[in-house]
Recover the amino acids of this structure.
């Protein structure tokens, strides 16, 4: 199979096309807790950008490897209310904690698509399928924490 691909690539060298690609990612995480912590999730909108090569391999088919920098992640909020007892006076105090997190990982991705293109009126209908590998190259975790109590007021970090 690899030999056929190499021969097809050598044959199609005059038809190889290069390009740039950019787009939008909408991603989220799914987490659960057995301790009763309330989690509310929202999507994070981010980007992807990179370069691609389209290599025809005969007929309707082409191979398209890409190299992309892609940002993903999610936003979520954790809220929790607990009762605390102050030892000296045996006073029960309610403490509410709200934590908002934004996770922004960055990846280098290498998808490789096998594409099939079919004529559809004045344009083409293109179907692509294939695997990709990704490697995390960095990211950030931003946290906004607020604690509220009737005795203390609001503390923020």
């Amino acid at each position: 199979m690899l030999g056929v691909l190499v021969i097809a690539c050598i044959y199609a060298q005059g038809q190889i096309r290069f390009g740039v690609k950019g787009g939008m990612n909408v991603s989220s995480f799914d987490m659960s807790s057995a301790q009763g912590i309330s989690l509310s999730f929202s999507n994070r909108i981010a980007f992807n950008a990179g370069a691609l090569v389209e290599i025809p391999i005969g007929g309707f088919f082409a191979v398209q490897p890409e190299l992309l920098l892609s940002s993903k992640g999610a936003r979520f909020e954790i809220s929790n209310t607990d009762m605390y007892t102050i030892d000296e006076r045996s006073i029960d105090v309610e403490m509410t904690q709200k934590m908002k997190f934004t996770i922004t990982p960055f990846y280098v991705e290498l998808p490789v698509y096998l594409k099939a293109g079919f004529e559809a009126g004045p344009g083409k209908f293109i179907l692509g399928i294939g695997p990709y590998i990704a490697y995390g190259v960095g990211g950030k975790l931003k946290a906004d924490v607020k604690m509220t109590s009737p005795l203390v007021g609001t503390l923020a970090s």
Remarks:
- Residues 1-9 have pLDDT under 50 and may be disordered.
- The helical segments are 2-11.
